[in-house]
Write a structure and sequence with these properties.
It is a single chain. The protein has 750 residues and is α+β, with helices and mostly antiparallel strands. It has six domains: 52 residues, no CATH class; 86 residues, Immunoglobulins (Immunoglobulin-like, Sandwich), CATH 2.60.40; 100 residues, Immunoglobulins (Immunoglobulin-like, Sandwich); 82 residues, Immunoglobulins (Immunoglobulin-like, Sandwich), CATH 2.60.40.10; 245 residues, Rossmann fold (3-Layer(aba) Sandwich); 110 residues, Immunoglobulin-like, CATH 2.60.40. The chain has twelve helices and 49 strands. Helix 3 packs antiparallel against helix 4. The radius of gyration is 28 Å and the shape is globular. It comes from Patella caerulea.
Length: 750
């Protein structure tokens, strides 16, 4: 075979723009070696991508487990290491209890300057496939730290509280977290309310281990997994008191039937953000289905609104800007609890807002929002889906033409950007937002697509320079890029490559870029949202300039440093060369002189959002007389929700229908779910994702379960053709470059 020196010599050819693989094959052939020998050499050289062409997938095998017990003094350093093999090479994520350790994605976890709060149970998750069944976990490692401080109050401390301290002892929990059973992959919410109105912190524990800390009385988990099984409790504390809730047991169940009956509440109408003038009325609605009775409780900025316990929350005769804020509804029945999306109330008054110049208008406003969270070879993210949903609603309310997409490949991302740029033109405000994994290389930022391979480099990702150059070529009035990604160096060192033409082009005016974090730093998320969007959504409705919006975001991060993980920091960075800095996201649209371009843009945009028409028909076999109704809803431009209602069960009993088959290029987001469990009409919710991958007309097969003469049956021969819904018409899956079309011009309207 080859010596270590020979192997390294071949590997170094990559730095001289030559191919180590070609040289290796020549050397092996000359020595009479076979493919097996080639695979062994590629493995030693860690050339994963080429090796994967020769060797089939190899499941992860843990060769060496981390130490089961480590005892160490404060301010020391510990290392937990795991050795494993698989192909693709394993990816790592360390956990403390059930919490991810931020940034701990290597085979070795090193904790420097260890403290008492670092004490706990650690383990590492390993994966090299998107299949959850192939994920491996190490054995648990217990870390014990000496000289841990005793945080309990001493007698002297209690004496120092004086009279105020005795009063604080009367604080008690008035609403304890409730036990519940939840479906795998669904969301659940725990609530812990305490008496009094003092500022408090809510510290949540899972199986006696620290889980998270919140400033509001509820804990929401969006994607329940088997690891959430067990006991949760909450410790509520302030400077003067501390109380502990009762334990709530969470049982995560897996339904193996084709359809799951949602006895837990399902929110089918989310509250919507709104802008209301002083003296006006705001109305928030939250509709839910499930086993009755269904209970409602409204919150503002995380605080309970006493007495607000119906599906609608109305604020009449608004007279104070103090009523601005984020409103949410907690929906519950005896089986589970769900928290609605947040709806922001913005009060429009000239008394508290600057008057924008009437000269600042746009010929149109367009936004492309992309969120990637399901990665093949990276950890799953929590925030993108909720962040895209929130920003989509906000920008829509600001009269932007919004296209929102989830989980795109590199080809799909490029084609989406190209199509987006065709909607831009002179006088247009364009906003591009991306949330997902990212990195920075040679002062350029790269966005990671969901299909990025193990060991991805810049060529596998979308360059922000590409997006910026495509937008600038359209001579927009505002090109705004909001990048919610990390800006640390890539894990894999990339060889020097030639610089594409679009990077070396001269930057034009009217571009503003908001990075979620500064160069070399990470961007963080909590259990539900990215920290950038949590701050950004507070200011987008405000009638101030775009630059002022981002300035307020930076200021907000400065005063909210307690939201970051321990020892971490996130500083948003803004770059701007707007020719007219006073332009605002709230500017009005005035398309005089651009009517043809505006009309064409409107038609192209509506084409991306076109959903199937609602329909009603007799299902097969028709002699049963079953009448089905299909209704369609969209929250994202590549996700289609199909509600299937049994309007007439015919001669059958217990009749229910759901999507049983669909093209293998798309998938269901979770199982079909029954959203009504009483009454005559039984309805299921079926959510189809990856609509952008459809290559032929979308055909679904509806399965119908029913009883007849005391026996149970299932019909599987009702086909429904849904054509090319939403962005399917754009064929984003095609590996091609779309021509950039210039907009027609016309004379000023008289």
């Amino acid at each position: 075979m080859f010596s270590q020196v020979e192997v390294e010599k071949i590997a170094l050819l990559i730095h001289s723009s030559k191919s180590p693989v070609d040289q290796l094959i020549l050397e092996l052939g000359g020595k009479g070696f076979c493919v097996k020998d080639l695979a062994e050499i590629l493995l030693e050289m860690k050339m994963e991508k080429t090796l994967f062409e020769l060797v089939e997938y190899i499941p992860i095998k843990i060769v060496k487990q981390p130490a089961s017990y480590i005892e160490v003094g404060e301010n020391k350093t510990i290392k937990l290491s795991v050795e494993a093999f698989g192909l693709p090479f394993p990816r790592y994520q360390w956990f403390k209890g059930d919490d991810e350790v931020p940034g701990a994605m290597e085979a070795t976890l090193q904790i420097d300057d260890i403290r008492d709060e670092d004490e706990g149970i650690y383990c590492c998750r390993l994966h090299n496939s998107r299949d959850p069944a192939l994920v491996k976990f190490t054995t648990e490692s217990e870390v014990k730290v000496h000289l841990k401080h005793n945080l309990k109050l001493t007698n002297s401390d209690e004496d120092d509280l004086g009279k105020g301290g005795s009063v604080c002892l009367h604080h008690h929990i008035i609403n304890h977290p409730r036990s519940m059973s939840v479906l795998l992959g669904s969301s659940f919410t725990l609530v812990c309310e305490v008496s009094g109105n003092q500022p408090v912190q809510y510290i949540w524990y899972h199986n006696q281990e620290f889980f998270t800390e919140t400033s509001s009385p509820y804990l929401q988990v969006d994607n329940a997994t088997e690891y959430h099984n067990g006991h949760f409790h909450c410790v509520v504390k302030s400077s003067f008191f501390e109380v502990k809730s009762k334990k709530a047991t969470i049982n995560v169940t897996v339904h193996r039937n084709s359809i799951s009956k949602a006895i837990s509440p399902e929110i089918i109408t989310q509250p919507k953000s709104c802008i209301v003038a002083m003296g006006g009325v705001a109305l928030f609605c939250c509709e839910a289905k499930g086993s009755r009775p269904i209970n409602y409780q409204w919150f503002k900025d995380g605080e309970v609104l006493p007495g607000s316990i119906t599906s609608e929350y109305k604020i009449s005769n608004i007279m104070s800007v103090q009523q601005e804020g984020l409103y949410q509804c907690l929906v519950s029945n005896r089986y589970a609890t769900k928290l609605s999306q947040g709806a922001f109330l913005k009060i429009n008054t000239c008394l508290n807002e600057p008057v924008l110049s009437p000269d600042h208008t746009a010929t149109d406003k367009v936004a492309l929002l992309i969120g990637n969270y399901e990665y093949r070879c990276e950890r799953r993210l929590n925030a993108p889906k909720a962040d895209i949903s929130n920003l989509s609603e906000i920008f829509s309310n600001l009269n932007f033409k919004v296209v929102s997409l989830l989980n795109l490949t590199l080809i799909e991302m490029k084609n989406a950007v190209d199509n987006f740029c065709e909607l831009l033109g002179p006088g247009v405000y364009g906003v591009f937002y991306f949330c997902g994994h990212g990195f920075e290389e040679n002062k350029s930022c790269y966005l990671v697509p969901e299909d990025a391979p193990t060991g991805y480099v810049t060529s596998h990702c979308l360059s922000v320079d590409y997006v910026q150059s495509k937008m600038q070529k359209q001579e927009t009035e505002v090109s705004c890029l909001i990048l919610d990604v990390c800006r640390t160096a890539n894990k894999v060192t990339c060889p020097e490559v030639s610089v594409p033409d679009y990077i070396s082009m001269e930057p034009s005016l009217n571009t503003v870029i908001c990075y979620a974090t500064s160069c070399g730093q990470l961007a963080f998320e909590n259990a539900n949202n990215g920290l950038l969007v949590l701050s950004l959504q507070k200011f987008l409705y405000t009638r101030i300039s775009i630059e002022e919006v981002f300035a307020k975001v930076r200021e907000d991060f400065g005063i909210s440093s307690n939201i970051f993980p321990k020892g971490k920091i996130q500083n948003p960075e803004v770059k701007s060369n707007l020719k007219h800095p006073g332009r605002s996201f709230c500017d009005e649209i005035q398309y005089t002189g651009h009517t043809q371009a505006y009309t064409r843009r409107q038609l192209d945009w509506e084409r991306c959002l076109l959903k199937p028409d609602d329909t009603e028909f007799v299902a097969n076999p028709q002699e049963l007389g079953i009448i089905l109704q299909l209704n369609f809803q969209t929250e994202f431009s590549n996700v289609l929700t199909v509600f299937i209602t049994v309007k007439n069960p015919g001669i059958t009993q217990n009749c229910i229908a759901y999507i049983g088959k669909h093209p293998n290029t798309i998938s269901l987001m979770g199982d079909p779910t029954e959203v009504t469990s009483d009454g005559t009409f039984r309805k299921t919710k079926n959510t189809l994702q990856d609509i952008q991958k459809i290559k032929d007309k979308l055909v679904i097969t509806i399965y119908i379960k029913y009883s007849l003469d005391g026996k149970n049956y299932q019909s599987e021969d009702t086909l429904v053709v849904l054509d090319y819904p939403l962005v399917a018409k754009l064929q984003l899956w095609r590996d091609m470059k779309l021509p950039c079309r210039r907009e027609p011009t016309e004379q000023e309207d008289n």
